[in-house]
Amino acid sequence: MAHLLIVEDDELLRDGLSAQLTQAGHRITTAEDGEAALARLSAEAFDGVVLDLGLPKIDGLSVLRQLRQRTPALPVLILTARDGIEDRVEGLNAGADDYLTKPFNRDELIARLQSMLRRASLPAFGAPPTSAHATASTLRLDPSLPRAWLGDDVIDLTQREWALLDLLVRHAGQVVSREDVLGVWQAEPGEAGGVASNALEVYVHRLRRKLAGSTLNIRNIRGLGYMLEV
Ligand code: CA
């Protein structure tokens, strides 16, 4: 059982999700706008958040950015009504762990939530180095800076390597397509767009070498993309 915060201004959808996730065995708290969401987040501890992007008072992306500063490791799944890679990329760049585009299938939401919560509990991943629990093979990413650590050692990463690693970590155990990686790279500030798609293999190869001391492996899924495995 997990304690989840559902942030959604559409009352029907909010009540429906709440009922369904309660039935799935979770404890649910709801918020109807961004301001209420931030108030709940400072008042209580949550295991995960389902966050609509289009919200009254404070929009979802602003909620996500503020939430990330306070609780870098809290799993967040964003819901977006708008179809298009820009919103997804913006959400992922702001620190979302996963996303669903409305209208979505309720069973898929539950499945994605479960896998997000499972990943968050994997010992191979940790928050930036404030926690004392990290072992030498624990990978930690700072969500606000292009920086990563393996145990206590800083991994020397370029902006583009960091963006790739960050994307793989947030989708650990799932296939990340070449298009997803190229989309995130093109959205990076200060990076020129139009990376040749065959450059991706070079970056993956370099990342593999830099992760050599960890329990993580970047697997090549032929024809589909890459997957980070623990
Ligand atoms: Ca909305």
Concise description?
With 230 residues, the chain is of the alpha/beta class.
Folded structure, characterized:
This protein is α/β, with parallel strands linked by helices. The protein folds into two domains: 3-121, 3-Layer(aba) Sandwich (Rossmann fold), CATH 3.40.50; 125-229, Orthogonal Bundle (Arc Repressor Mutant, subunit A). Helix content is 40%, strand content 22%. It is built from eight helices and twelve strands. A five-stranded parallel beta sheet has the order 2-1-3-4-5, sandwiched between helices. Strands 6-7-8-9 form a four-stranded mixed beta sheet, with helices on one face. A hairpin with a 2-residue loop joins strand 8 and strand 9 (153-155). Helix 4 (85-93) packs across helix 7. The protein is globular. The model is unreliable at 127-134 (pLDDT under 50). Calcium ion is lined by residues 9-10, 52, 54-55. Calcium ion binds at residues 9-10, 52, 54-55.
Q: Give the full name of the CATH homologous superfamily of the largest domain.
A: Response regulator
Taking all Cα atoms into account, the compactness measure Rg is 17 Å
Distance between termini?
23 Å
Counting DSSP E segments of at least 2 residues, the number of strands comes to: 12
Largest sheet: 5 strands, parallel
- What is the correct CATH architecture of the largest domain? 3-Layer(aba) Sandwich
Q: Which term fits the overall shape? A: globular
- SSE arrangement, N to C: EHEHEHEHEHEEEEHEHHEE
Under CATH, the topology of the largest domain can be stated as: Rossmann fold
Q: How many alpha or pi helices?
A: 8
